C-alpha cells in the first residue's frame, strides 16, 4: 500500500507528518539467491522509475563497498538486498532493472559501489542535484521530502557500521524509509524544475553524473593528512609519508577505516616529536593505548625508514600540481590573472543569482580558476565555449556563462 501524500505542500501546508516506518512494513532482508530471483521477477513487473539507495560502512571499513542495497518500485514495494551474503552476485537484479530510470539522492556517492556489483543505470534522476538546480539552500533527503511532500523522515543511522551482521531492525526501518518516498520526490522535483525552465539543465547534469569516470588516483595521497600544514621540514614530511603508507597498508589488509587504525593527528604528532624508540613513541597520546602499544614496533619501523632516507629521497615541501596556485597568491604572482578571476567571479555571481542557482553548479570553481589563470588565446565567445566544452562543462552551463566569461577575460586584459 502506497503512502498517501498530503494535499498541500505550499507555505500554508499543515505540520509535516512524521514517518516512522514504511507503509507496507519492513521487508525481510534478501540474502539467498532464490529470494533474489523472486524479488527480481517482482521488480521487473513493476512500473515507472526505480528508487535505489545503498548503505556503506564509511568510517569503519577501508572499502566503500555496499553492505545493503535498497530498491523500490511502484506496484511491488521495497526490497532490501544483502550483497555480502550473496557474495556480490546480483545478476538477477541487474537484469530486472535493465532499461529503467533510477532515482537516487546524491547519486555520485552511491554509483561507484553499485557499479562494483554490476549495477549501472541507463537513465538517472538525482533528487539532491535537482534540489540544488532548483535553488534550494538545503538539499538533504529529509529536508526535500518535508518541503516537497509534507513528510518528516525519522532521523536514522547513516553513520552506522553497516558491515555489522545481523542488521538491527531499527536500521532496516531507516534503510527502507530512505527509498519510501524517492519516486514521489522525483515527481515533485521534476515538476518544479519544469516550472522553472531548468528541466533540460537537470537532464544534462544527471547524465554527466551517470557517465562520470572514476577520479584518477592521487600521486601522493599522504599529503592530504589532516594537519600536515603544521609539518615544516622535509624529514618530518618523510615521517608523515612513512606512517601514512604503513597505516594504509595495514588498514587495507584488514578492511579497516584508516582513521580507526591511527588518527591523522597522531601521525602528525609523531612526525613532529622525532621520537627515537618505542618508549618515547608510546609516551605520546594515543600511542600509549592498548591497541597502539601492540603496533608500536610497526610505527617505529616506519619512522626509522624515514630517518634513514638520503636528502635526495626526501619529499618536496609541496606536492606536484597541474593546477593554478592558491588564489590568495594570484595578486602577487600574476596581477592580470587576479583581475580576470575577480571580473569572472562577479559576472558568474550575477548570473547565478538571476537564475536562482548555486554559483558552483553554474560552473565548477576549479574550471573557472583554470580558465582565468591560463586563458585561451581566443577569448571570443566561441573560443571560451570551446575551452569550457573541452574541460567538461555542460551545454547549458556554456550557454549561460560563455558570453560573460569572454567579456570578463577581455575586460581584465584591457581589450
Automatic annotation (TrEMBL):
Residues 233-313 form the HRDC domain. It comes from the Bacteria. Residues 1-24, 312-333 are annotated as: Disordered. SMART domains: 35EXOc, HRDC. One of its GO terms (molecular function) is nucleic acid binding. One of its GO terms (biological process) is nucleobase-containing compound metabolic process. Transmembrane segments: none annotated. Gene3D superfamilies: HRDC domain, Ribonuclease H-like superfamily/Ribonuclease H. PANTHER family: RIBONUCLEASE D (PTHR47649:SF1). This is Ribonuclease D. It comes from Saccharopolyspora montiporae.
